[in-house]
Write the structure tokens for this entry.
Amino acid sequence: MPYKSILFILILMGSQASTVDPDRWVVHKGYIAFTSDAPLELIQARSTGLKGVIDKAKNRFAFTIDMQGFEGFNSPLQREHFNENYLETRLYPKANFSGKIIEAVDWDAEGTYQVRAKGKLKIHGEMQERIIKSELTISKKAVKIRSTFKVPLEDHKIGIPKIMFQKIAEHINVTIEAEINK
Amino acid sequence: MKIESTLLAISLIIQSVLAIGQVPFIRNHELPAQWGETKVDFIHQSPRGYVWLAGERGVLRFNGLTYEVYETEKVVGSVRPSAILESSQQELWIGFEDGKLAILTEEDSLVLWEPEEGWPQVSISDLSEDRHGNIWIATNGEGLYAWDGKRLSNFDEEDGLGSLEVAKLTLDRSNRVWAATDAGISICWFEGKRKKVQQLGRTHGLPDEIIVAVKCDSSGMCVAATYETGIVQIDSKTLEVTPLSPEWHGGIITALELISPDQVAVGTDNRGVWRYDISRSSLRPLFSDQLDGEKVQGLLQDESGVVWILSKRSGLHSINRHFEYIDFGVDNIQALVGREQLWIGTREGLYRWMPDSTGEGSMQQVITDNILSLYEDALGRIWAGGFGNGLYVINPTTLNYTHLDEATGLPNGSIISIDGDTSSVWVATLGGVVQFDLGTTPSGNPKPLQSLNHESGLETNFVYKVFVDSRGMVWLGTDGKGIVSWQEGKWRRYQEAAGHSVKTVYGITEDHYGNIWFNTKEHGIFKYDGQAFSYLGYEEGVKNHSISGIATDNFGNILIFHPGGIDHFDPISHHFIYFGKEVGVDKIDPSLNSYCKDKWGRHWIGTGKGAIVYTPLTDQTSIHPITRIEGIRANLEPLEPKDFSSLPYHQNDLVFDYVGLWYSNPGAVTYKYKLEGYNKDWVYSRDQQATYPNVPPGTYTFEVSSTENGAFQDEPILSYAFEIRAPFWKRGWFLIIAALMILSLAYLLMKLRDRRIQREATLVKEKLVSQFETLKSQINPHFLFNTLSTLITVIDEDQQVAIEYVEKLADFYRSILSYRELELIPIDEELKIMKDYIYILKKRFGENLVVAIEEIDQGANIIPLTLQILVENAVKHNVISMNQPLKIDIFQEEESYICVRNKLQRKLNPEPSTGFGLESICRRYDVLSQKKVKIQEAEHYFKVSIPILNHKPSKYENLDYRRRSSFFTQAREVTARSST
């Protein structure tokens, strides 16, 4: 299965512009934000570098994000720590989540649906299987995806110095928004 | 000795009677009334021992007698619960048809379970818990989920799961979850955090891909049921599949349960419940007649060995598998024997029972004589003893027999009992006991070796029971002559045992430790361990002394057969289990010694037209009811578990609800309980409730134990310790504070009293001083001289004025005398004195002295003669002359002061003064008032402000009146001294 998803991501990378397969939809607008709400400090960062693809025939998906592209933070130093100490973005420049949607989705029926995406979430080089609740809003011309979920640092071996625990939450709240033009 | 052999043709089998199949004792359990017509369709036994049911409106907890109803509608709406599981954390997980899950907590509150990952969107079909505490959730359409307490993971086809349609789950010995799916069995587990799935399908030998149920036991054996092609056995380690019922004819399978290591119960869609014996490959109905065409929805075997059947239409049934009943369709059964085949001796003849694979069977008559006793010898031959008609020794294969009677060497043709070992057979006739040589081949004729009878030393010819023990010793239960043992010519007779006389002995058996047990006609049961006897009577727990037989089961327990049922006695723990009405064996009235044990360890007890079959269960783990405290109420309000251990003093009307779970006979459970710290003795009761009103503060332990047999020996005791806190006013800290407060209050009161007494004393003293001073000044020669000089002048001028003057003077002295003892006087009284005094002074000083008195509030009080003393002081210390007239102002200041102010024109030679008058005034005001006397000496004037006192301290007046006489005396003395 990992080979499949890696292949899938590779395809996704290469096929940004040209959608050869009509079943395959590419996210044209992606947004990701995270919040670390620790007792002493609230850290927020966001990025519009979320890329993704959905195979509507197979109910599969793959999302990826360039970890170095996050903006925000409370100081440039914090951003540097994020990149160099915690997420080690030079070593692990990408985070991705790929898998399939558990529920059967009728991509032509307009409306808002709650679905669960089951897949492998890879952050900081650590793979975790996750089921993530998402909201799909299907309209005539577009599909909007919105999801919020938690990422426990421990799951992805993101080491935080003990002294920083009051400044960085154990769970990072992540929000993603993606839009696909049909 | 002539022995006649008769060859019996098969054609001699006269009759073949159809016997009905074995019928276990079945109970139907009504659902609670408020449940109405709602059906239940899921059954589960919790680790705590409760039987839980799930139905349309919620879940039910059943304790064997009553239901506890938990409606789920309020929390999840009108969705049907479809699976339940009580976890090791004592939380009841409830899965619903719409995929939601809820948890009934230990505190009985139902809460929705809301994982971050969201609920499945399809119905929950089963729930399971592994030994790591992971909760496994089977769904119809989304595969399997596992909850590790933090994260919900999903197993689907991509993970290797056979199908997303999962029907049932079971846990194997290696902590793996077996999922019965629409495409084989998927064995799932976690290796670290990684999901692992092992798939079993047709290629592994499963006869069908649709698996409806799978069940594993602790030995590593698993059994799976296919939709309609029967059941298979799977070794959980090697995963080797063995079909169990290659030609399944039981119908569509809906449920499965392992009811013993050798037996599987299979529930079907419309053909009831089957049981499959693995070692005998036989499929027989367990429960079918009453379930005509009904779908079996659940099967469960609980800890006590009771099998529960949940049927779609007729609800909940329970089967006690210990007992079954077979109706052979023949009357007067007198003897039974047979290790593999059952032989039945009746008054009408000897029958052989031949069961078919379905459990039904037919009766084949072998001999037409009255058969009283039966024995199967070591060579497999059947020995049938008649009543007056001799002995038959039958070859079970050919049915050829040898007939022996009085003519052919038997001392008597009536045979009561037969027993033997590998070399000989002992036959008890009404003419004594005969030993036969067994021979070596089944076809050989048995030869009588010797007789034991009245003449040879037995003292009687009547023996009810002959028994050969494991050491080869022969035991004879005689009629009236006790129990006799015989070995190689040595007799031993026992006619007294453990203090009881032993006369007639009906039955003898040997336990696994070589002890001989026998029952007597007169008393109960005796045990002989080779050295001494012990006795089991009513006191020891034997229910009935009309014992018709005694036997040992394969687990070494002693079985006692009597008309009221069957008692099961554990010779080690001395624990009795009674089987009677609740399992349908209360009116069996077994014939004497019509009993046998087959090679599967089942006991057959002949009674009337049939036999009771008792199957001891190997997996029977609990011999005691499971005692549970179901709830504690204080003042009729249920307590939350967190409040259990410590209660406030006013929550002291306590009710404990408890239950002893004993599903095989819930009605037989009795309890004992006590509240340690409240009463010392156990209370014995049938109630599932103990009430303690008005429990005083203290620490207590509630203890409760339950028994199913009325005897408390080693029954576990459930205890619950708690305290009732004393009210705060009875607790140490409060008492200490209260004592301190009382002490300090007393101290304060004493202090106040001291001060009051002191003040009183000061007051009296000051008053005396003041009076003395006043008198001294008024009677001082200067004043007298001046006054009298003035008087002379006045007399000369105007007699009338002189009279007035003397009157005023007298008035003045009288006022001094009458007011001086008073504590206070009204201001107007004081002013009246003042006016007299001023009149006297005016006569002397004329216009040179001006005393101006302003309006002063009436009703105010001052210390008597204060103003007079102050005016006197002013006159005394200042120059009064034509050139320097003295003006004295008396006025009220700031409402609460009266001021006496005079112009300051000091005399050049001041009169000697003690200053005592002013000082005394100050001190007296100090005592009587918070306000101080203010003395102000400026450049031009001298001002004294005295506080106006509003109160009227009457108590001092009384005091003063009492002392008045003594004051007068003193005053007189002072006067006398001054005048000299």
Q: What stands out?
A: Chain B has nine helices and 75 strands. Chain B touches chain A at residues 116-118, 121, 142, 151-154, 156, 158, 195 (CB under 8 Å).
